[in-house]
Design brief:
Layout (H helix, E strand, L loop, with lengths): L2 H12 L2 H20 L2 H12 L5 H9 L7 H13 L1
């Protein structure tokens, strides 16, 4: 395991359940975007999204959000945007 992967695993181990739930919802949304994008584009989107990865950008967004006051739909939309771009 690389040092980066080990550090990420450490961060995920300390993340609260809210952050882990948001990451799971993000994965579902990424999958639904791929299936709704049409056959040709959908295959490309599915390939990129199913590759998994560290999802560091959305994770940072979730960790930086004020969990007492955040708007979950807006937060998920923002996480989708940073991950897809």
């Amino acid at each position: 395991m690389s040092a980066t992967q080990a550090a990420l695993e450490g961060v995920l181990a300390t993340a609260d359940q809210q952050v882990l739930d948001l990451l799971a919802k993000l994965e579902l949304r990424l999958g639904s975007i791929g299936s709704a994008a049409g056959l040709k584009l959908g295959d490309e989107v599915q390939s990129v999204c199913s590759a998994g990865g560290k999802r560091v950008r959305p994770l940072l967004l979730f960790l930086a959000a004020d969990q007492a006051t955040y708007n979950e739909p807006a937060l998920l939309s923002s996480a989708l945007a940073v991950e897809l771009l």
